[in-house]
Amino acid sequence: MVSAAPVPDALAPLPVAVQVDADRVVAPLPPIWRFFGADEPNYATQPDGAKLLLELGQLRPDAVYFRAHNLLTSGDGTADFKWGSTNVYTERDGKPVYDWHVVDGILDAYRARGLHPYLEIGFMPRALSSAPAGVPYRRPWSADGPKGNGTGGWNYPPRDYTKWAELVYQWTRHNVERYGRAEVERWYFEVWNEPNLDFYWSGDPQEFYRMHDVAIDAVRRALPSARVGGPDVAGAGDAFMDGFLNHVTGGTNYATGKTGTPTDFVSFHAKGQPSVVDGHVRMGIANQLQTADAGFAKIAAVPALAHTPIVIGENDPEGCAACPGPANAYRNGTLYASYTAASYARLWALARRRDVRLEGALSWSFTFVGQPWFAGYRQLASNGVDLAVLNVLRLFARLGETQVAASSDGEIALDRIVRDGVRGSPDVGVLATRTAGGKLAVLLWNYHDDDVPGPAAAVHLTLAGKHGAVARLWRVDARHANAFGAWQAMGSPARPTADQVARLQMASRLVAEPLAVGADGIDVTIPRQGVALIELER
Fold first, then answer.
1. DSSP structure string for 84-120
2. Residue 201 phi/psi, 5° resolution?
3. Of 451, 419, 427, which Cα lies nearest the Cα of 336?
4. Measured between alpha carbons, how far is 422 from 448 in angstroms, rounded to an integer?
5. Out of 40, 190, 194, 535, which one is annotated catalytic?
6. Are 215 and 165 a contacting pair, CB within 8 Å?
7. Are 459 and 16 in contact (CB under 8 A)?
8. Pick from 214, 174, 199, 195: nearest CA to 83
9. 359 a catalytic residue
10. Where are the domains of the chain?
11. 31-401 — its CATH code?
């Protein structure tokens, strides 16, 4: 296997003591990582997209969800970064014409590979848009364009709420007929995306509440047992989210006239904030964690929703998967991978501290079909070759759903990392779980916000309680399960040969190695921006 060039360590390895008590249960650990999404729905039906969907479905068979924008958008079904379309709705002589074949192909692609839809109802079809005359339905997207580039008539309220309701009703009924009632009952239904941002919503909050109520009522008329919620706001939502939560719990429903709107889950988005400092990328993990904590607190403060399931409907290091740039240079390699390990561990901890029911934290990362190798977009695979971050998600999939006691003297305390991020000493953290079958899984990471060389962590792991004597180690770091490092070692070829592609595929693989269990524990070295999983079986 081709490996990345060695990373020079200016300092000696940092000694870190980790302790795990396999018999002391902390709490359930829900698999919040099993949610994914993308701006571009049509990539799902192309070969690289279909391949990646299959890999995502295999992470946790029959339990993975996918969310996509543009499922109701008018167009010819061509994907284009932050755009896609299905053309489900047109009109002839003022009467609705429904065409499900493109959207069926997208949802079929999910189901054929074992995924379930987290169904976003949006955006507004051209024939239903209330955009004023002269507003183009779509402006071409460019990552380098001015603010507002890419928006248009698709982000307006419906001009006719009765027709909007009927569209949603007919689509839901069609899905029940096509996929079966039991399957569609498993889906998440939510309306729109980030309606608190001008880019995505040109109406006012009350118009959004109305559109939301009408759509949710239409879903429930077609399938009374459907799981419905929202509003998938950007960030914790500020005053917009406060208004929405008040409306769905105590406001007058625009569709039914009753008090409140059915809400089976609540959703918001949490993003980090990377920057360039002294010529290198500095991640903003604190920004993402602060936003998540604020969202949890906001929901917990509403008694009627305090224990309602929460989905962080987009949960990422920054806000635009389709935007490359110097601050986003973390995406291809191990910085993204280690950030993911460190941030998800804190999401579990924050949800437990707020006593909220975190059900999902959706990674808005998929793939960009037909783009150059390792082009710098936020994705899980490049041209069919998996990136390091996908391998960390595979490590998550090996965790059990019962967390057991674990501590590391190299881990940044929760309050400190939420407040400051990781700017001084590295975050050498641990998360330990037990599976239903009794396997012990110990996740370790050596993370820093700054993308600069740093010392490896020389971890000494001591074990208490019942644990297996047979151990194996899985690694994701500069030299393991990292196709980007292998590509760099090849000289970063713009058009890899067939042999080079095969070598990249090999370099991307997550491979287990045996690990010695000594009388006093286990020793393992984790490079900077590395992640490791130790599994012990009887």
1. -----EEEETTEEEE--HHHHHHHHHHHHTTEEEEEE
2. -145, 120
3. 451
4. 5
5. 194
6. yes
7. yes
8. 199
9. no
10. 31-401
11. 3.20.20.80
Please write down the HEC assignment for all residues of 425-449. Answer: CCEEEEEEEECCCCCEEEEEEEECC
Please list, residue by residue across 387-413, b when 16 or more beta carbons sit within 10 angstroms of its beta carbon and e when fewer do.
Answer: bbbbbbbbbbbbbbeebbebebebbbe
Provide the residue type at 347 as one letter. L
Instruction: Spell out the long-range contacts of 137-146 with Cβ–Cβ below 8 A and sequence spacing 24 or more.
Output: 137/74, 138/75, 138/83, 140/80, 141/80, 141/81, 141/82, 141/83, 141/322, 143/81, 143/320, 143/322, 143/323, 143/324, 143/325
Give residues with Cβ within 8 angstroms of 532, minimum separation 6: 443, 444, 445, 473, 474, 475, 476, 477, 524, 526
Residue 301 half-sphere exposure toward CB, CA atoms < 13 A: 10
Residue 49 tokens, joined: 């997209």
What angle separates helix 238-250 from helix 205-222, to the nearest 10 degrees?
Answer: 50
Give the pLDDT of the chain (538 residues) as one tens digit per residue: 233 334 444 579 999 999 999 999 999 999 999 999 999 999 999 999 999 999 999 999 999 999 999 999 999 999 888 899 999 999 999 999 999 999 999 999 999 999 999 999 999 999 999 999 999 999 887 766 555 567 899 999 999 999 999 999 999 999 999 999 999 999 999 999 999 999 999 999 999 999 999 999 999 999 999 999 999 999 999 999 999 999 999 999 999 999 999 999 999 999 999 999 999 999 999 999 999 999 999 999 999 999 999 999 999 999 999 998 999 999 999 999 999 999 999 999 999 999 999 999 999 999 999 999 999 999 999 999 999 999 999 999 999 999 999 999 999 999 999 999 999 999 999 999 998 888 999 999 999 999 999 999 999 999 998 887 789 999 999 999 999 999 999 999 999 999 999 999 999 999 999 998 988 899 999 999 999 999 998 7
Residue 516 structure tokens: 């010695």
For 42, what's the count of Cα atoms within 13 Å in the CB-facing half-sphere?
A: 20
The set of residues, in sequence order, having a beta carbon less than 8 Å from that of 334 and lying 6+ positions away, is 388, 476, 477, 478, 482, 485, 529, 530, 531
Angle ∠(237,241,245) on CA atoms, nearest 5: 155
Query: Around 204, how many Cα atoms within 13 Å sit in the side-chain half-sphere?
Result: 1
Q: How far apart are the C-alpha atoms of 362 and 232, rounded to whole Å?
A: 11
15 pairs with which residues across the strands? Answer: 458
- Greatest Cα pair distance in the chain: 81
How far apart CA 534 and CA 432 sit, in angstroms, is 9
